[in-house]
């Protein structure tokens, strides 16, 4: 598998929750630092959460305390649990490897998250 496959997006009301999933390559997933990105209409893609191979996590300040990134290496799957969603979280969400040459060709279609009443 070359490209990431993201899923779990949808339409949710402000204050709601969603859980995103992303499946990567079995060959390199477990040895890769992974990240969730998002791109809102008219804006550049931004990195919102990172998880290292040791489980260490980091978050963009705008999502700190509301989002939680996790991984299941046995399933080569990355997760993003999102709570207390806000309209400004509306974007297409993508996952990818960090710091690997494979990331260039691994961008998937993303999954749309829309937060609206």
What are the defining features of this structure?
globular; mainly beta; 10 strands; 6-stranded mixed sheet; 117 residues; 0% helix; 45% strand; single chain
Spans of 5+ residues with little confidence (pLDDT < 50)?
none
Strand order of the largest sheet: 2-10-9-4-5-6
Number of helices: 0
Strand content: over 45%
Rg (CA only): 13 Å
Q: Helices and strands: which structural class? A: mainly beta
Structure description:
By secondary structure, this protein is mostly beta strands. Helix content is 0%, strand content 45%. It has no helices and ten strands. The protein has a six-stranded mixed β-sheet with strand order 2-10-9-4-5-6, with no helix packed on it. Strands 1-3-8-7 form a four-stranded antiparallel β-sheet, with no helix packed on it. It is globular and about 40 Å long. It starts with a strand and ends with a strand. The model has no long low-confidence stretch (mean pLDDT 96).
List the helices and strands and how they pair.
Elements: E1 5-7, E2 10-12, E3 18-23, E4 33-39, E5 46-51, E6 57-59, E7 67-72, E8 77-82, E9 91-98, E10 111-115
Quick gist of this model?
Strands 2-10-9-4-5-6 form a 6-stranded mixed sheet, with no helix packed on it. It is an all-beta fold. The chain has strands at 5-7, 10-12, 18-23, 33-39, 46-51, 57-59, 67-72, 77-82, 91-98, 111-115.
